[in-house]
Specification:
The protein is of the alpha/beta class. Helices cover 40% and strands 14% of the residues. Helix 3 runs parallel beside helix 4. It is globular and about 50 Å long. The structure holds zinc ion (ZN).
Length: 297
């Protein structure tokens, strides 16, 4: 028996029916969908998505939630954001639409957002503009009292239809994640947003210590993507070293690259096998996410 869990960040709106059923029958009680990214699907973009595109990416999952919950018995909530992973045009107009979503009870967070040195589909987004857009979104999160899911960039390799996304930044690849996380947090802090309501996502060995020792943020661990080959043993070591109070698991599942569909249940099984206390397992796989997003479960 795997045990129940909350997937605190994924893009399972890009997955198919059978995958939802598999997740629902192997312990997923709730999930938070990060909405707004055009690169989740197996589609090619030759120009930057704009107002109509991003509105569709936000509205689609929000409108689908009720049907999906009833069909798969998983509580689904959404996060909406203007991500820097792909360049977005008309983002100023999209900012004006965000309050309507943030007031919706099915939207529990703003995100995923965060500076990124490279964009998919070779559609480069100047850093100054990304910075302005990030700051404006942090202001909205503060005003509407919603937590932030903070994306941290993965040093990427060129990939067929996603365009040239190899790192071109001045920062060495092994420092990319920490470097941009610090820049993001600086921008977010300036707005007066409560740092404890930031989930710094895609934690790796370069950021886990910094998040615990120098910030009050939640440490979100993405375990289900082939792009970040993170093993359950690494997560177990982090929970033992830093304690379970500020770590929460997610799969970050999406539709355009290989995923391990059962990564979260497998990690629960490995934590149990390693002898972690049940209370610690419950915190990192369920309780921390429930409290962070204020979910009624
Ligand atoms: Zn994501």
């Amino acid at each position: 028996m795997f045990g129940e869990y909350i997937d605190s960040h994924n893009h399972m709106h890009a997955l198919n029916w059978d995958e939802w059923e598999l997740l629902g029958t192997t312990g997923m009680r709730a999930a938070v969908l990060s909405c707004g990214n055009p690169h989740l699907y197996r589609e090619v973009w030759d120009e930057a998505p704009g107002y109509d595109d991003i509105m569709r990416f936000w509205e689609g999952p929000v409108e689908m939630i009720r049907a999906l919950e009833a069909q798969h018995f998983i509580q689904i909530r959404c996060a909406v954001g203007i991500s820097s992973m792909t360049r977005v045009s008309d983002w100023e107009n999209l900012l004006e639409e965000m309050p309507g979503f943030l007031e919706d009870e099915s939207v529990v967070a703003l995100g995923e957002i965060g500076l990124d040195p490279t964009q998919y589909f070779s559609l480069t987004w100047p850093m100054e503009e990304q910075t302005t857009c990030l700051e404006a979104q942090a202001e909205l999160a503060k005003k509407y009292d919603k937590p932030i899911i903070l994306h941290t960039p993965t040093p990427k390799k060129s990939k067929d239809f996603l365009g040239d996304v190899a790192v071109q930044a001045d920062v060495p690849p092994e420092q990319i994640r920490l470097h941009y996380m610090q820049k993001d947090l600086e921008i977010i802090r300036k707005t007066g947003f409560d740092e404890a309501k930031v989930a710094v996502d895609h934690t790796d060995a370069t950021t886990v210590g910094h998040i615990h020792e120098h910030t009050r943020a939640m440490c979100a661990v993405s375990i289900g993507s082939a792009l970040r080959p993170l093993q359950p043993a690494q997560v177990i070591e982090w929970v033992e070293r830093f304690g379970p109070d500020r770590i929460m698991l997610n799969s970050d599942h999406l539709g355009y690259r290989p995923i391990d569909i059962l990564s979260v249940p497998k990690t629960l099984r490995a934590m149990r096998n390693a002898g972690l206390p049940e209370e610690a397992i419950r915190k990192v796989s369920f309780e921390n996410a429930r409290k962070f997003y204020n979910l009624a479960l």
